[in-house]
Design a protein that fits this description.
Length: 379
């Protein structure tokens, strides 16, 4: 097998939608834009397209780099590219920044054409089913009637699951990684604490901080620090940082002393420099609301009754935010609904973030499953 390579230099594209969309909340957006990237070549019958759905803090830049000196490859560059598990020499891969995002798609920081000012607090809540609808409209623009696969981790995996329910005839395979059929009370609690950090920041200004030329940086920083703790495993954090001191001795104060403190503050500072606080609120609320069984009397089997896709469900044993037990709930419901599903539970020390890592057993399973999809297309 040839050595995996990068997709190389990439650029983002923008799709404009002039047809209004009415969201699940009842609010109608008269127009909106989605920023996306594509890698690989769409084949003659448009049967080799794969949609990548991003997680809470993700975006459309999934693979490649923007320039020769760009130090930051796409967030899933280890998974997508020539010779990689999602092989761009065989698949046409699409990454999209979801509606409500802060990386070019219409969101709270975008200009509301009705006022000439940023939407801010007036931007509506967006649910996973709304993202699926906008992604379907993007697929229509690109001439893609059916996806060979829809792939996502965490909140992205929830989108992949939702796709199979909302548009069962448009998905041949769904790869649902480190996800859950709905959030636990503990997960909702974590999200609310993170939101409260932002909402109570004096610089938040009710969500209209753009007009005050400020950013609720303290709240966003704390939200990210809290979230980041839950994405890591205790063993992984202990192995990397333990109780290491920056100076080698106690300083008897409240400044940064332990290496883990330094790491979390660095992550919080970095995140607050590039992510929008209103988008963070929207994304966590979409997580809270996700529950495809809600309109089926809480019965996930009934929710999956019309699904046509085949599934690969993957979990990680050190992921306590979306534990393997939650993935097994999805697997059991699919089996009870008499659907085709493969399941893998990976031994990993990386916690919830494991779905982003270059882990050989994990990548081998992804590669094997996607090889079979490529063979289906070629047959």
């Amino acid at each position: 097998m040839p050595e995996p390579r990068s997709v190389g230099l990439v650029s983002a594209q923008k799709a404009v939608f002039e047809t209004p969309i009415t969201l699940t909340s009842g609010v109608t957006l008269p127009r909106y834009e989605l920023v996306y990237e594509t890698y690989g070549t769409l084949n003659a019958d448009h049967s080799n397209a794969i949609l990548i759905c991003h997680a809470l803090s993700g975006h459309h830049h999934v693979a490649g780099r923007y320039s020769e000196d760009d130090k930051n490859a796409g967030w899933w560059d280890n998974m997508i590219g020539p010779g990689k598990p999602i092989d761009t020499e065989r698949f046409f891969v699409i990454g999209v920044n979801n509606l409500g995002g802060c990386h070019g798609s219409t969101g709270p920081s975008s200009i509301d054409p009705a006022t000439g000012k940023p939407y801010g607090s007036t931007f509506p809540l967006v649910l996973v089913r709304d993202w699926v609808e906008t992604q379907a409209r993007l697929a229509d623009q690109l001439g893609i009637r059916q996806f060979a696969a829809i792939v996502g981790g965490s909140l992205g995996g929830m989108q992949a699951l939702r796709w199979t329910i909302t548009h069962p005839d448009r998905v041949r395979h769904a790869l649902v990684i480190a996800a859950a059929p709905k959030l636990t009370a503990q997960n909702i609690a974590f999200n609310d604490v993170a939101r409260q950090a932002i909402l109570t920041d004096p610089d938040f200004h009710g969500g209209d901080y753009y007009q005050h030329d400020t950013v609720p940086r303290r709240g966003l920083r704390l939200a990210r620090m809290l979230g980041h703790i839950t994405y890591l495993s205790d063993d992984g954090m202990g192995e990397k940082f333990g109780r290491m001191l920056r100076s080698g001795e106690y300083k008897y104060g409240f400044d940064v002393e332990f290496e883990i403190e330094s790491y979390l503050r660095y992550q919080g500072d970095k995140f607050s420099d590039y992510f929008d606080a209103n988008t963070y609120l929207l994304m966590t609320k979409a997580l809270d609301y996700f529950d495809p069984a809600r309109h089926y009397g809480g019965d996930l089997v009934k929710a999956l009754a019309e699904v046509q896709a085949r599934f690969l469900v993957v979990s990680f044993n050190s992921d306590w935010r979306f534990s393997p037990a939650r993935s097994r709930e999805i697997v059991k419901a699919l089996l009870d609904a008499r659907k085709h599903v493969s399941y893998a539970e990976i031994d990993s020390k990386h916690g919830h973030d494991a779905f982003l890592m270059e882990d050989p057993p994990y990548h081998a399973i992804m590669r094997a499953y996607l090889d079979n999809i490529a063979q289906e297309i070629a047959a």
